[in-house]
TrEMBL record:
Catalytic activity reported: adenylyl-molybdopterin + molybdate = Mo-molybdopterin + AMP + H(+)
Name listed for the protein in its UniProt record: Molybdopterin molybdenumtransferase
EC number from the UniProt entry: 2.10.1.1
Required cofactor names: Mg(2+)
Species assigned in the record: Cohnella herbarum
GO cellular component, one term: cytosol
GO biological-process terms attached to the record: Mo-molybdopterin cofactor biosynthetic process
Annotated function: Catalyzes the insertion of molybdate into adenylated molybdopterin with the concomitant release of AMP.
Length: 348
């Protein structure tokens, strides 16, 4: 490369050339990649940006982060710089309701624009990570995300990546889009649903103890943009619970939630009452802790939950996994429930 001192060392990567230049000789040269500083507990980030022209005042700063030599790149037309590779991969993967960030140290983030449910095609993520030299890290499918939350990040591992790796990513992502009509990484918004909430328990109905379930369930719905339209109370009486469920159905609510009485005591009437009301039960019992005693089904097409005691006090239960699916408009089937067991031990 013109202007380089003659004693530099060079490495061939693919068809490109990576040349090492001593920091002292680098004044006036253009940095080939971002340079990271890490001060534990204080700072981790970019000290110098790719493209920065080195000036003499930079030399002590570069030495402080352990740089004796810098890279200068002669990029072959068949290769890509790490930032460009990461950017192209992110552009291929991100879809509706997502935003792609700026390249940063060879990494590009795909973030959510909205509150919604993440759609992450696991098979695409795995296939891409099998290619080598590039990496894609994502959150899990069906994660609830808020505006600005990260969904995935692409990264080139070496500084120079053969373009065919990125083309392979583009083709995997393109095939997925063709087959599914949606990008491999996307976010679906939640619908506003109005729920009827029936709180069972003779101790609450009689006023012996204050209701704690109502506020907890309302907060969980409201956090995702929905609401409890009406809350009613029932003692541990199967017949009364059935009537109350039918009342909610007649009100036309989008979802019915019945709390308490979900376990094995003689006074636990809720699962039987939900069945008696005419529910097609998808599952009573959910392989996740907390929330194992949850019941889920559909009654005349309306999703209905039987919520066990833990939903009242635990922030992340089987209800918190299934509720976002319902709010996103998914029909929950038995296999969805079966799949919750693997990785479903949280705390209990
Ligand atoms: N032998 C077994 N015991 C338990 C099992 C089991 O499988 N075998 N399951 C456990 C799990 S998991 C859960 S969760 C709990 C209870 O679930 P329930 O839905 O039956 O809850 P309740 O018995 O109705 O109430 C438990 C507890 O919470 C109080 N509560 C209920 N509703 C309200 C409310 N609206 N406001 C305030 N407090 C409320 C209630 O008074 C009880 O103290 O069962 C485990 N046991
Ligand atoms: O159903 Mo309990 O609901 O696992 O803590």
């Amino acid at each position: 490369m013109p202007g380089l001192p003659s004693d530099h060392r060079s490495t061939v990567i693919g068809s490109s050339l990576l040349k090492e230049v001593m920091v002292e000789d680098a004044v006036g040269m253009v940095l080939a990649h971002d340079l990271t500083q890490i001060v534990p507990g204080e700072f981790k980030g970019r000290l110098f940006r790719k493209g920065h022209v080195v000036v003499s005042e930079d030399i002590p700063k570069l030495k402080d982060i352990g740089k004796e030599n810098l890279y200068v790149i002669e990029l072959a037309p068949t290769d890509l710089h790490e930032d460009d590779a990461a950017l192209r991969m992110a552009a291929a993967l991100g879809g509706v309701n997502t935003t792609i960030g700026e390249p940063h140290e060879g990494k590009v983030s795909i973030k959510s624009d909205i509150l919604g449910i993440a759609g992450i095609a696991r098979e695409v993520v795995d296939e891409i990570n099998r290619l080598g030299e590039i990496a894609l890290a994502s959150v899990t499918n069906h994660r609830v995300v808020f505006p600005g939350d990260g969904l995935a990040a692409t990264r080139a591992i070496p500084l120079i990546v053969p373009e065919h790796k990125v083309q392979a990513v583009e083709s995997i992502a393109g095939d997925y889009r063709k087959r599914h009509g949606i990008a491999p990484i996307s976010v679906r918004p939640f619908r506003l649903m109005k729920a009827g909430l029936l709180t069972t328990g003779s101790e609450v109905f009689s006023g012996r103890i204050a209701d704690k379930f109502g506020p907890a369930v309302k907060a969980k719905l409201e956090a995702l943009g929905s609401e409890v339209a009406e809350q009613r109370f029932a003692p541990d009486d199967r017949h009364i619970i059935v009537n109350e469920i039918h009342y909610f159905l007649n009100q036309g609510y989008d979802m019915i939630l019945v709390t308490g009485g979900m376990s094995v005591d003689p006074d636990d009437r809720t699962p039987g009452a939900i069945a008696d009301a005419g529910t097609d039960i998808v599952s009573y019992g959910t392989p996740m802790l907390p929330g194992s005693m949850l019941l889920f089904g559909y009654i005349r097409g309306v999703p209905i939950f039987g919520l066990p005691g833990c939903v009242m006090h635990d922030p992340y239960t089987s209800f918190d996994v299934l509720l976002p699916r319902i709010l996103a408009g998914d029909t929950v089937v038995k296999e969805d429930i079966v799949g919750m067991g693997y990785g479903g031990l949280h705390r209990c």
